[in-house]
Amino acid sequence: MKRFILYFIPLMVLASCSSYKYHTTKIQGTDFSQYHTYGWLPPVDSLSKSYFDNDIANANILETANRELEARGLTYSKANPDLLFRYVAIVNNKSRPIYGGHPYGPWGMWGYNPWMWGPGWGFGYGWNRPVGKERYRAGHIIIEARDRRSNTVIWQARGSGEVRNPEQAINDLPEVVAGVMEQFPLRAVAK
Questions:
Q1: How distant, in Å, are the alpha carbons of 55, 113, 188 from that of 21?
Q2: 20-97+137-181 has which fold?
Q3: Do you know which PROSITE patterns this protein is assigned to (predicted)?
Q4: CA nearest 134: which of 92, 163, 95?
C-alpha cells in the first residue's frame, strides 16, 4: 500500500499541473504600490487566426482580469487611471517534433554499438530522436500594463497552451487570465 501511495501522489501532482505556461517581464525597479486605479485600452487586433474575437471571449477576459485587479487593491476608473491595461488574444499554427525509434536501436538487443565504450548492449539508441513534425494550434493571452503618465509598458505577461477545441478554449479563458494575472507584481489582498 505504501508503494502505491508513493507512486500515486506524484502522479496526481503531475496530473493537476496546468497545461498552460506563463511568462512575464517588467521594468525592474518599478514600485507597483504607487498605482491605485486602472482602465482598459481597446484590445490589439491580431492578424492570426483567432478563436477569441467575439463578445463571449472578450467578456471572459475582461471580467476575470477586473476581478483579479480589484483583488490586488486597484480600482477601475475611466477618468485618468494610473495604469492602462490592454490584451491581445492569438491563436496560431505551430509545429513540434515527434520522437520515436526502436528501443534497441538498429543493432538489436545484443548488437554492437560503435557509439558506446566498446561492445555494448545497444539499449536505448533511437529513443528521443526526432522522426517528424506535428502541427498544432497554440493559443496565447497577453496582458500588458502601461503607465499612463509616461506612456510606457511597465509589465507584460503571457499565458500559452494548445488549443484543440474553440469552445473549450473560450471556456478556459478565466483560468488562463487568472494565471496571467498571478504574474502581476502586486499580490492579491486576502478578504
A1: 25, 39, 20
A2: Double Stranded RNA Binding Domain (3.30.160)
A3: PROKAR_LIPOPROTEIN (PS51257)
A4: 95
Length of the chain: 191
- How far is the C-alpha of 135 from the C-alpha of 172, rounded, in Å? 21
163 in Cβ contact with 141 (< 8 Å):
no
Q: Are 72 and 188 in contact, with CB atoms under 8 Å apart? A: yes
Dig out the grid coordinates for 68 from the structure: 483579479
Question: Quick check: helix, strand or coil at residue 79?
Answer: coil
Confidence of residue 116 (pLDDT cuts 50, 70, 90): low
Q: Beta partners for 132?
A: 98
Give all strands of the β-sheet with 37-40 in edge-to-edge order: 21-26, 152-162, 129-147, 83-100, 37-40, 75-76
Grid cell digits, residue 93: 499554427
CB 157 within 8 A of CB 184: yes
Give the closest residue to 62 by CA, choosing from 36, 38, 26. Answer: 38
Tell me the pTM: 0.72
Tell me which of 51-60, 71-80, 83-92, 128-137 is least confident.
128-137
- CB-based contacts of 47, cutoff 8 Å, min separation 6: none
Cell numbers that stand for 166 in this block: 474553440
